[in-house]
Write a structure and sequence with these properties.
The chain is built from 11 helices and 8 strands. By secondary structure, the protein is of the alpha/beta class. The longest helix is centred in the last third of the chain and has 18 residues.
């Protein structure tokens, strides 16, 4: 098993006087990791975009890296230069917990995409991508990339996302999560000395919404088991998350609405979703409807199976890596 975190090179790029959509200006640091080497013609770059609360290191875990980057896998490193940025507000990039706390700009997905673009072009000198792939929030931003920079990527792939405005249950649980933190007296309008308990409650809700109903039913057979899992999740959240960071991360989706512009996507796009993903419910037909507006788009919903983990199947690249290989083969000309 390869230790992809040790293999990866880390770096950062500062964007001076970055202008957020809300009018705020700030010097923004964009952190990233890379694997492989950029070719002399700079035509082998791949960018991978992570999900909410995550970072680019998401792709370095064995359940993803071993099925993407090894020899004979879709993104084998003797062929591709892989770029994994930390989105604004996430990982080691600029975020509220970096010092500004509640005074950090209320960024949206549009700001995140702009930061990724400027890192790529200004920081790394890459003006063309062989592939742009995103999971969950990163998948949502991939739809935006396809519209905003239609000539930038040779191929696009989204995993566990839909190109539609956040509404209904998806909107409700996000607002509940934010409310769990903001209504905690310990939050103190973002001016706290220790993490408020609401952070733990919020991340327990997040785990519930992104998990697999089948796996939860298999794992939790008693009140004690359920309480123990809640306790573990809340303890991990209080140890590893920051309240302002979490609120900003989930609030950022408020400007997401790619549906009206789907016709602008020019690159071949493959959207892979999962049958047991409660965040992107199959029964609402959102993926099929969206594909009618994408000129070179294909949507695939994978049935639940032994390795399914609900929305978190995005972390099980073994389930979807063959579809990535097919996309690369079809767009290799």
């Amino acid at each position: 098993m390869t230790d992809w975190k040790r293999e990866a090179e880390s770096g950062s790029h500062t964007i001076s006087d970055f202008r957020f959509d809300d009018g705020h200006r700030l010097d923004v640091t964009m952190a990233y990791h890379t694997l492989g080497s950029l070719s002399a013609d700079a035509d082998n770059a791949v960018m991978l975009l992570h999900g909410t609360t995550g970072s680019g290191q998401q792709f370095l875990q064995p359940s993803i890296g071993d099925f993407l980057f090894r020899s004979h896998q879709p993104l084998e490193l003797d062929r591709y230069f892989v770029i994994m940025p930390d989105a604004i507000g996430h990982g080691s990039s600029s975020r509220p917990s970096g010092g500004l706390g509640p005074d950090f700009p209320r960024y949206g997905y549009s700001d995140i995409v702009e930061g990724q673009y400027r890192l790529l072009v200004e920081g790394l000198g890459v003006e063309r991508l062989r592939l742009l792939l995103g999971t969950s929030m990163g998948g949502m931003q991939t739809w935006m990339w396809g519209e905003r920079y239609p000539a930038m990527a040779q191929a696009l792939m989204t995993v566990a996302s839909l190109p539609e405005r956040i509404t209904g249950r998806n909107l409700l649980w996000r607002r509940m999560l934010i409310h769990l933190i903001e209504s905690d007296p310990g939050y103190n309008d973002g001016h706290y000395d220790e993490q408020p308990a609401g952070v733990g409650h919020a991340m327990a809700l997040f785990q519930l919404m992104t998990g697999s109903s089948r796996q939860i039913a298999s794992d939790l057979h008693s009140i004690d088991a359920a309480d123990a899992q809640i306790g573990r999740t809340e303890a991990q959240a209080l140890d590893g998350e920051d309240a302002n960071d979490v609120i900003w991360e989930f609030d950022a989706s408020r400007d997401y609405d790619p549906a009206p512009g789907l016709h602008a996507i020019q690159a071949p796009l493959l959207a892979v979703n999962f049958e047991d993903d409660e965040l992107n419910p199959v029964e609402l037909g959102g993926l099929e409807q969206a594909m009618t507006s994408v000129g070179h788009g294909q949507g695939v919903t994978l049935p639940a199976g032994p390795k399914s983990r609900g929305h978190q199947t995005l972390h099980v690249a073994e389930v979807w890596c063959d579809y990535l290989a097919e996309l690369l083969a079809k767009t290799g000309g």
